[in-house]
TrEMBL record:
Enzyme Commission identifier(s): 5.6.2.4
GO molecular function: 3'-5' DNA helicase activity; ATP binding; DNA binding; hydrolase activity
Name of the protein described by the UniProt record: ATP-dependent DNA helicase RecG
InterPro entries assigned: ATP-dep_DNA_helicase_RecG, DEAD/DEAH_box_helicase_dom, Helicase_ATP-bd, Helicase_C-like, NA-bd_OB-fold, P-loop_NTPase, RecG/Mfd, RecG_dom3_C
Function noted in UniProt: Plays a critical role in recombination and DNA repair. Helps process Holliday junction intermediates to mature products by catalyzing branch migration. Has replication fork regression activity, unwinds stalled or blocked replication forks to make a HJ that can be resolved. Has a DNA unwinding activity characteristic of a DNA helicase with 3'-5' polarity.
SUPFAM superfamilies: Nucleic acid-binding proteins (SSF50249), P-loop containing nucleoside triphosphate hydrolases (SSF52540)
Keyword set, alphabetical order: ATP-binding, DNA damage, DNA recombination, DNA repair, DNA-binding, Helicase, Hydrolase, Isomerase, Nucleotide-binding
The Helicase ATP-binding domain, residue ranges: 270-439
PROSITE patterns: HELICASE_ATP_BIND_1, HELICASE_CTER
Catalytic activity, reaction form: ATP + H2O = ADP + phosphate + H(+); Couples ATP hydrolysis with the unwinding of duplex DNA by translocating in the 3'-5' direction
Residue intervals of the Helicase C-terminal domain: 458-622
Gene3D superfamilies linked to this entry: Nucleic acid-binding proteins, P-loop containing nucleotide triphosphate hydrolases
Length: 687
């Protein structure tokens, strides 16, 4: 459906919903169903039922209190019901004139004065009843349900729904799934005898077919993407004796954990091949991912290539920069190599110096924010790209970094790091085209963190605890969710908290850090805290990742109920990095209704019960679902519309096993199947 000036409003609305092909319309499935196949009596109904009745109008009046409304009383020979309309026109009054017999559909409310219905659907009584449940579709403005039902059914009639499963594979599924054509026709027009429960919870065999189709399409696209990448070429880096890699290992002030040694070996094996590495390095907060990245970079640099490390924020990029300079620069000096630093806030002179170092190849390692991928950054020989907190970068940014390779048909090895562990079902599904390395143990000496959930009403006790920690020479983080007052969220802001803590701790330095401060000011505040002169740091979530202060022993998260689970876990990981006993206080507020939301309660409970990042990630997936967990809107990942990773693991495993067989033995079926579900939208998989 090409965009043109003659498109009608409904056509534009269909396009907005992504309904451009007949198959798109066929796959646009109802949110819910209404039963218009039978008439019920009021005496047989219950409070909250969605009913269809036929009744005679006995009165029709306009009332003005508490506001202008149309009040209509109807009688269906078993009981009476009052209809209430706050929006009405003369045509509605005419249709509901006294004596008229009407068919009404709406939700029944019961009260002292009997049954009522708010704004029911109305049509004249009599006429044929529907023979199937009436679908209610997801829609947008300018697209009424009646119009949408009509175009969906016409799209369904025209769509090619021929089977793309290889012969015999549906027999492997239990319960036995329906043919696609039958499944879609049924889901758009289910018969009245079906259990609404099996439609709503998607356990009906017709739904099983749709889930199996969707998961197979996703696995095919991921696998195809992985195979395309395997056809590209990358430089092969061999480990060399006596190089920067072995010198760095000898110079480190700590011994690598067994898990770190294992993932270093997996990465070294990958980058020794000419096939591009596409690996996700995941590990809990503080598990030591940065040193693994440094050792991988050292192998690439020993082989005469450059490495780029990109982080989502300047604070995190600077944290990496400081660590990497400490480890690598002493080893670079003798070889005439440098570490370059690129961010958006750099002065022009400094930036130009850094750009020259990158272009000449003198900068063997380039660390920065998204500034690393801007057009004017030219690498001489980029061989390895490391992206930290990869889910914080959009697809276009990841593709741009890979495009920095100077030779066409080649691309750098790609190592992505995440401190939010990926639950197994997500790794099987959305990361099927990635190899995953996991650091599943923490370095020795990490102090266990005690987590306390405390109501905001006990704030004074928390301040007393801070006073005690400061008196012992310890440091404290206090994290707030907002910088300034918002009418929508009446939350205590960071500035007020900073003033209150400064007054409560007269002898201690209390700092303030938030995202709107100039970079130089942020840097100065962080330097004071990292250096130990500042006792308490009041901050927004800019300190979520990357900050390493072993002397910090207490983390207070204010309005913890507003934070995401993985975000709270990241913040908690800022303490417990030294030898002192450490604690994290989750300070929650009950909100205007005097109670926590169900999601808020579930998050706080999970935080109190476990410090294991993998268990936190599993619960986060349960609470939020895969779309929000992965940050789908900015990552470009195609979210599953019908399948549920929590309940459809068996179908996912079936699709994973079938995808390679289809690509090898039935390539034309595989192509048609992926095209049916994704059209031309699988480009995102290449990132």
């Amino acid at each position: 459906m090409p965009v043109n000036a003659t498109m009608t409003a409904p056509q534009k609305a269909l396009r907005k919903l992504g309904l451009e092909r007949d198959i798109d319309l066929a796959l646009h499935l109802p949110l819910r169903y209404e039963d218009e196949t039978r008439i019920v009596k009021l005496r047989d109904s219950r409070e909250g039922d969605l009913v269809q009745i036929e009744a005679t109008v006995t009165s029709c009046d306009i009332a003005y209190r508490p506001r202008r409304q149309l009040l209509v009383t109807v009688d269906d020979d078993s009981d009476t019901c009052v209809l209430r309309f706050f929006t009405f026109y003369p045509s509605l009054q005419k249709a509901l004139a006294v004596g008229n017999r009407v068919r009404l559909r709406g939700e029944l409310k019961g009260g002292f004065l009997g049954w009522t219905m708010m704004h029911p659907a109305i049509k004249p009584a009599g006429g044929e009843l529907a023979t199937a449940l009436t679908p209610v579709y997801p829609t947008v403005a300018a697209l009424p349900q009646a119009y949408l039902r009509k175009v969906v059914l016409s799209g369904l009639a025209r769509a090619d729904l021929s089977d793309t499963f290889p012969p015999g594979v549906t027999q492997q599924l239990r319960p036995q799934v329906w043919p696609l054509q039958d499944a879609l026709r049924f889901l758009h027009q289910p018969t009245p005898d079906v259990s609404l429960g099996t439609l709503e919870d998607k356990t009906h065999p017709a739904w099983q077919r749709l889930k199996a189709e969707e998961l197979l399409a996703q696995q095919l696209s991921q696998l195809e993407s992985k195979r395309e990448r395997a056809a590209l070429r990358s430089p092969a880096f061999a480990l060399t004796a006596g190089g920067i890699h072995s010198q760095l290992l000898d110079a480190l002030p700590f011994k690598l954990t067994l898990a770190q040694q294992r993932v270093c070996k997996e990465i070294a094996q990958d980058i020794a091949r000419e096939m591009p590495m596409h690996r996700l390095l995941q590990g809990d907060v503080g598990s030591g991912k940065t040193v693994v990245a440094a050792l991988a970079a050292a192998i690439a640099i020993d082989a005469g290539w450059q490495c780029a490390l990109m982080a989502p924020t300047e604070i995190l990029a600077e944290q990496h920069f400081r660590k990497l300079i400490g480890w690598l620069e002493p080893l670079f000096v003798a070889r005439g190599l440098r570490v370059a630093w690129l961010t958006g806030s750099q002065k022009k002179k400094e930036r130009n110096e850094m750009l020259a170092l990158v272009a000449s190849g003198e900068a063997a390692l380039v660390v920065g924010t998204h500034a690393v991928i801007q057009d004017h950054v030219v690498f001489k020989r980029l061989g390895l790209a490391v992206i930290d907190e990869q889910h914080r970068f959009g697809v276009a940014q990841r593709l741009a970094l890979r495009a920095k390779m100077s030779e066409p048909g080649h691309e750098p090895h790609l190592l992505m790091m995440s401190a939010t562990p990926i639950p197994r079902t997500l790794a099987m599904s959305y990361y099927a085209d990635l190899d995953v390395s996991t650091i599943d143990e923490l370095p020795p000496g990490r102090t266990p963190i005690v987590t306390k959930v405390i109501a905001d009403s006990r704030r004074d006790e928390v301040v007393e605890r801070i006073r005690s920690q400061v008196a012992q020479g310890r440091q404290v983080y206090w994290v707030c969710p907002l910088i300034e007052e918002s009418e929508a969220l009446d939350l205590t802001n960071a500035t007020e908290t900073h003033e209150a803590l400064s007054a409560a701790l007269p002898g201690a330095m209390v700092g303030l850090l938030h995202s709107r401060m100039p970079p130089a000011e942020k840097k100065a505040v962080m330097s004071l805290f990292v250096g130990g002169q500042m006792a308490v740091l009041v901050s927004t979530t800019v300190i979520e990742v990357g900050v390493d202060v072993p002397n910090a022993s207490l983390m207070v998260i204010e309005h913890a109920e507003r934070f995401g689970l993985s975000q709270m876990h990241q913040l908690r990981g800022r303490v417990g990095r030294g030898s002192a006993a450490s604690a994290c206080v989750l300070l929650y507020s009950l909100g205007e209704y005097g109670k926590l939301s169900e999601m808020g309660r579930a998050r706080l409970k999970a935080m109190a019960e476990t410090t294991d990042g993998f268990e936190i990630a599993r619960r986060d997936l349960e609470i939020r679902g895969p779309g929000e967990f992965l940050g789908a809107r900015q990552s470009g990942a195609a979210m599953l519309r019908f399948a549920d990773l929590a309940t459809d693991v068996a179908l996912l495993e079936w699709a994973r096993a079938l995808a390679p067989q289809m690509l090898d033995l039935h390539p034309e079926l595989a192509r048609r199947h992926a095209a049916r579900w994704f059209g031309g939208k699988s480009e995102f998989l290449k990132a």
